[in-house]
Design goal:
By secondary structure, this protein is mostly helical. It is built from twelve helices and no strands.
């Protein structure tokens, strides 16, 4: 049975579906799909298509969810599946160097770049992190924190980073609960990324050495019975 490459190409270009689910849908191998994608420059065609749809759209709600300026789709080498997790991650880190620039002053482009990061990680089973988000945004981790804390561009960027930060925290907590990562690793990351702390509640109740007293007269009697006053010798 012939593979419907034109149909596959159209679906790839006009949607944000990743190579793996697309390959599974049509019963083909990821390397074969990747080869056709590179030969036909599908990634560039997808970006041009999404940009055109964004420009044609007049519906603000549609603009918010559709990829536009700042959107970047990174394709992982299919051979990464054959590598060990650590080797795969190192290869992924090298690919991050190829992320193109965008207008960091434009909050809509920052939002699209953040959305593209989460989309990529979801499609390629890559763990999300503040450090990688910063690389995707082409800023330092320090700048990411300043945006989040409102020290810089607070009126345009702070809410975007806060929402992304909450998503990363929620994903980490869920991974810890479901056993996707080990408790020591999860706890370490929560402490370092989100300032979680080990808290122990201590209740300090002062104790009266004379016991419970009802009135001043009882206090006087107890003192007289316990305090010895030595007389001075002549």
């Amino acid at each position: 049975m012939a593979i419907p490459w034109e149909e596959i190409k159209k679906e790839y270009i006009t949607t944000t579906i990743g190579q793996r689910p697309l390959a599974e849908k049509y019963g083909i191998s990821v390397p074969s799909l990747n080869s056709h994608s590179k030969a036909g420059n599908w990634v560039q065609l997808r970006q041009e298509y999404m940009q055109k749809k964004l420009e044609e759209s007049q519906d603000k709600s549609e603009v918010e969810i559709m990829p536009g300026d700042g959107w970047f789709s990174l394709e992982l080498d299919p051979d990464l599946d054959k590598l060990k997790p650590q080797q795969r991650y190192r290869r992924y880190k090298n690919l991050l160097k190829n992320i193109p620039p965008y207008d960091q002053d434009d909050p809509s482009q920052v939002k699209n770049r953040i959305n593209s990061y989460f989309h990529f990680c979801n499609e390629n089973d890559i763990a999300i992190s503040p450090a990688d988000l910063a690389k995707w945004l082409k800023i330092s981790s320090g700048t990411l924190r300043r945006w989040r804390n409102g020290e810089y561009r607070s009126s345009t960027h702070q809410k975007l980073i806060e929402d992304a930060w909450d998503s990363i925290e929620g994903d980490l907590v869920n991974s810890l609960r479901t056993g996707a990562i080990s408790p020591p690793s999860g706890i370490f990351l929560l402490k370092n990324w989100f300032n979680y702390k080990d808290v122990q509640d201590l209740v300090v109740a002062p104790k009266n050495p004379l016991g419970e007293l009802q009135n001043l007269e009882e206090l006087r009697k107890r003192i007289e019975g316990t305090v010895i006053i030595e007389e001075e010798k002549e």
